[in-house]
C-alpha cells in the first residue's frame, strides 16, 4: 500500500519519479505527490485523487529542473484522501520532505510531543510527525540526514518505509524500512529507491534488497546501507529479469485483460525447469533439506484473498497426494488464535507481492514457533521470501491490475509442485504417478489457451446480467475455492454483492438468499471420475432453480447432462478433476472484468483497494 519512488542521478528527477509512480499506482491511488530539490530549496506538488490529477497540476504549475526527487502515491490510512494529507509532508522549516508507506503506530504520542513543543501540524497523517522529528534531530547530529534518520526511526513503532530529501544536502536521498517494502535500483550514475522494482526496471535491472530495520543513503554514484544503529550492512544484490513489455498494456484496453490473456504463458513459465529429465520433481530453489519434507507431520498454508483461495485449491491436491493434513488459514487471523504449529509443521506463505503484512506477520509467528517456512511468491526481492526458510517463485511476471488473475493460476501450480515434491520425498506417490500428474500440469497452458479462445460469450452474458444486484457462486471440492474466487473478483471489480458457497452448504442457510432471477454461477465438477460430485451438484442446482435462480453453469465440454439444468452454460475443456480450477477460474475472471466494464468502473484500479496490502 502506497507507492514510493526516490531518484538521484543525471536525469530530470520529476520525469523518472512520475513514470515510477505510474508503475506503482496499483499500490494506492487516493492521492499523489512529488518533491524535488532545486536551487537549494524544496518544491512540492501534491493532489488528491489519481496520479493524473497530479500530472494536471504539474502541467499548470511546473516544477523546476532537478536531478533529485521523491514521489508518492497514497492508499489512505490516517486522514482522508485530501490534498493536505497527500505526501510528501514537509517540516515546518521547509527543510525536510518525507514520504511514507505503512502505519506509525505511536504517532499520536509523537504528535502530542511535537504540539507541546510548539510545532503546528498541518495534516491528519501519521507521516507528518517524521518530517518535524527529522528537522529537529538534524542539528544535534551534525546535520547528517542518515544519522538523523537513525535517531528518528529508533523512536517509531509500527511499519514504515520512509524516504526523505533535504535541500541542504541536495545530492542525497535517504530511505529507511521496517516491515514495509523498499528496494534499491542501482544504475550507472543514478540510483533509485522504490516500493518495488516495477518503478525503475526500465532504467536498471540491478537491484538490492533491503532488510528489516535498515537505512539506505543514495547518491548518484553510491549506495550505503546501515542498520538503525549505523553499523554497515551489505545488502543482497539481485537482477530483475522481467520483460520490459510486461509492465505495458501491449494493445489491451486494461491490464487485467492483458494479464488474463497471459495466463497460459504464466503457467508454462512457472512449470518450466522444475522437472528432471527422468520426470522427477526438481525444485532446486527449495534450499530446505529433503529430510524436512520427509519429517513434517502437517502443512499449514497462510495467505490472504486470492492467494488464500489458491491455498484452498492446493489443500485438496496436497492431502490427496501426500496424506498429510493441510490447514489453510487466513493470514490475518492466524497469529491471533494461538495456532498449533511447531518444528513438525511446514508453513507455506502464498503471496503475489511478497509484502502482504498479514501474511508476513503470520509467517513470522510460525517461524517463532519453530515451524519450517516456505514462500510461494511472485516478486523477487520482497520480504516474505527473504524471511522464509525456502522459496518457490511463481513466474507470472508483473501483475499490475489490482485484481489478481495470473498470479492465482501460478500460485496453484507452485503449490501443486510443492505437493508433488512432498509426495516424492515421502514416497507417497510412485514415480509413475508423479510423471502422470506432471503431464497433466504440462497440458494446462494449452487448456487455458483453449478457454481464452472460447470465452467471448461470457462477455455477452455479463452484459445481460449487469442489472443483477447479487450473484451467488457455488462449487464443490476444488470448485468451492473457485466459487469463492469468482465471487471475490465480482465484488472487488463490479462492486456487487457476490458470495461463494460450497454447494452442499446452501441448504443450511444461504438458500434463503435465493429469489426470482438471482444469478447463481455453478462450478460443475466433471461427470467423469467421481460422478457422485456431479450428481450432488445437479441436486443443488435443482434446489435453487426451484426457487427462481438463473443458473450459469461452468461445465466441461461433453457434459451434456448439465444443459438440462442450466440457463447458460460456459464451457471449459475436459481436464483431470484437480486441474479444473486452472480452467474454470478463467471465465469467472472475464465475467467480473466485463461486468465492471459495463458498469463503467475502473477495472485496473477498483475503489478502496490497493494491490500490495502492507498494513494489518
Ligand atoms: C484479489 C487480490 C487480493 C490479494 C491479497 C493477497 O484480487 O488481489 O485478494 O490476493 O491481497 O495479496 P498477495 O498475494 O500479494 O499477498
Distance between the termini: 11 Å
Broad shape: globular
CATH superfamily of the largest domain: Aminohydrolase, N-terminal nucleophile (Ntn) domain
CATH architecture classification name of the largest domain: 4-Layer Sandwich
Strand runs, count: 24
Count of all domains: 3
The CATH topology of the largest domain turns out to be Glutamine Phosphoribosylpyrophosphate, subunit 1, domain 1
Question: What average pLDDT do the residues reach?
Answer: 94
Low-pLDDT runs: none
**Order of strands in the sheet with most strands:** 3-2-4-1-10-9-11-14
Radius of gyration: 25 Å
Number of helices: 18
Please characterize this protein's 3D structure.
- It is a single chain.
- This protein is α/β, with parallel strands linked by helices and 616 residues long.
- The chain has three domains: 3-240, Aminohydrolase, N-terminal nucleophile (Ntn) domain (Glutamine Phosphoribosylpyrophosphate, subunit 1, domain 1, 4-Layer Sandwich); 248-442, Glucose-6-phosphate isomerase like protein, domain 1 (Rossmann fold, 3-Layer(aba) Sandwich); 452-598, Rossmann fold (3-Layer(aba) Sandwich).
- The chain is 35% helix and 22% strand.
- The chain has 18 helices and 24 strands.
- It has an eight-stranded antiparallel sheet with strand order 3-2-4-1-10-9-11-14, with helices on one face.
- A hairpin with a 2-residue loop joins strand 2 (31-38) and strand 3 (41-48).
- Helix 7 packs parallel to helix 13 (406-426), helix 7 packs antiparallel against helix 14 (431-453) and helix 9 packs antiparallel against helix 16.
- It is globular.
- The N and C termini lie close together (11 Å).
- The mean pLDDT is 94.
- The structure holds fructose -6-phosphate.
- Fructose -6-phosphate is lined by residues 304-307, 351-353, 356, 359, 403-404, 488, 492, 612-613.
Amino acid at each position: 500500500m502506497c507507492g514510493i519512488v526516490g531518484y538521484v542521478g543525471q536525469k530530470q528527477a520529476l520525469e523518472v519519479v512520475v513514470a515510477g509512480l505510474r508503475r506503482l499506482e496499483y499500490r494506492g491511488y487516493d492521492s499523489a505527490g512529488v518533491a524535488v530539490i532545486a536551487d537549494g530549496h524544496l518544491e512540492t506538488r501534491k493532489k488528491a485523487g489519481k496520479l493524473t490529477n497530479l500530472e494536471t497540476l504539474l502541467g499548470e504549475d511546473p516544477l523546476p529542473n532537478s536531478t533529485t526527487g521523491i514521489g508518492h502515491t497514497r492508499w489512505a490510512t490516517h486522514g482522508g484522501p485530501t490534498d493536505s494529507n497527500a505526501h510528501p509532508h514537509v517540516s515546518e522549516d521547509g527543510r525536510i520532505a518525507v514520504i511514507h508507506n505503512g502505519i506509525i503506530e505511536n504517532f499520536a504520542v509523537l504528535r502530542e510531543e511535537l504540539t507541546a513543543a510548539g510545532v503546528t501540524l498541518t495534516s491528519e497523517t501519521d507521516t507528518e510527525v517524521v518530517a518535524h522529528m527529522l528537522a529537529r534531530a538534524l542539528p544535534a547530529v551534525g546535520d547528517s540526514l542518515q544519522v538523523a534518520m537513525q535517531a528518528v526511526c529508533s523512536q517509531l513503532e509500527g511499519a514504515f518505509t520512509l524516504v526523505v530529501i533535504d535541500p541542504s544536502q541536495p545530492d542525497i536521498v535517504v530511505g529507511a524500512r521496517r516491515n514495509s517494502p523498499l528496494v534499491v535500483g542501482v544504475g550507472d550514475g543514478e540510483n533509485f529507491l522504490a516500493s518495488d522494482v516495477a518503478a525503475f526496471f526500465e532504467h536498471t535491472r540491478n537491484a538490492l534488497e533491503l532488510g528489516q530495520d535498515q537505512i539506505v543513503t543514495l547518491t548518484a554514484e553510491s549506495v550505503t546501507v546501515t542498520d538503525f544503529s549505523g553499523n554497515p550492512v551489505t545488502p543482497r544484490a539481485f537482477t530483475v529479469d522481467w520483460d520490459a513489455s510486461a509492465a505495458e498494456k501491449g494493445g489491451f484496453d486494461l491490464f487485467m485483460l492483458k494479464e488474463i490473456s497471459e495466463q497460459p504463458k504464466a503457467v508454462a513459465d512457472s512449470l518450466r525447469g522444475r522437472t528432471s529429465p527422468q520426470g522427477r520433481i526438481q525444485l532446486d530453489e527449495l534450499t530446505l533439506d529433503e529430510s524436512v519434507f520427509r519429517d513434517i507431520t502437517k502443512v499449514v498454508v497462510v495467505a490472504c484473498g486470492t492467494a488464500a483461495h489458491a491455498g484452498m485449491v492446493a489443500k485438496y491436491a496436497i492431502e490427496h497426494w501426500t496424506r498429510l493434513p493441510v490447514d489453510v488459514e487466513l493470514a490475518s487471523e492466524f497469529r491471533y488464535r494461538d495456532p498449533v504449529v511447531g518444528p513438525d509443521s511446514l508453513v507455506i506463505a502464498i503471496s503475489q507481492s511478497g509484502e502482504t503484512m498479514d501474511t508476513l506477520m503470520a509467517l513470522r509467528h510460525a517461524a517463532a514457533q519453530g515451524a519450517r517456512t516456505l514462500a510461494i511468491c511472485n516478486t523477487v526481492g520482497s520480504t516474505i521470501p527473504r524471511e522464509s526458510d525456502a522459496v518457490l517463485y511463481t513466474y507470472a511476471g508483473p501483475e499490475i491490475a489490482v485484481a489478481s488473475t495470473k498470479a492465482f493460476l501460478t500460485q496453484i501450480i507452485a503449490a501443486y509442485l510443492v505437493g508433488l515434491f512432498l509426495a516424492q520425498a515421502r514416497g507417497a506417490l510412485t514415480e509413475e504417478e508423479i510423471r502422470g500428474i506432471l503431464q497433466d500440469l504440462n497440458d494446462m497452458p494449452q487448456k487455458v489457451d483453449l478457454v481464452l479462445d472460447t470465452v467471448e460469450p461470457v462477455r455477452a452474458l455479463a452484459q445481460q446480467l449487469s442489472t443483477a444486484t447479487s450473484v451467488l457462486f457455488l462449487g464443490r471440492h476444488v470448485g468451492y475455492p473457485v466459487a469463492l474466487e469468482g465471487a471475490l473478483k465480482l465484488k472487488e471489480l463490479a462492486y456487487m454483492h457476490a458470495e461463494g458457497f460450497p454447494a452442499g452448504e446452501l441448504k443450511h442457510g444461504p438458500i434463503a438468499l435465493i429469489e426470482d432471477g438471482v444469478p447463481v454461477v455453478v462450478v460443475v465438477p466433471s461427470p467423469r471420475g467421481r460422478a457422485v460430485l456431479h450428481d450432488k451438484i445437479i441436486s443443488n442446482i435443482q434446489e435453487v432453480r426451484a426457487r427462481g435462480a438463473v443458473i450459469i453453469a461452468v461445465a466441461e465440454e461433453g457434459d451434456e447432462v448439465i444443459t438440462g439444468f442450466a440457463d447458460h452454460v460456459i464451457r471449459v475443456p475436459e481436464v483431470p478433476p484437480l486441474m479444473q480450477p486452472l480452467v474454470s477460474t478463467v471465465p469467472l475472471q472475464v465475467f467480473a472484468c466485463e461486468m465492471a466494464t459495463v458498469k463503467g468502473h475502473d477495472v485496473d484500479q477498483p475503489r478502496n483497494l490497493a494491490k500490495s496490502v502492507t498494513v494489518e
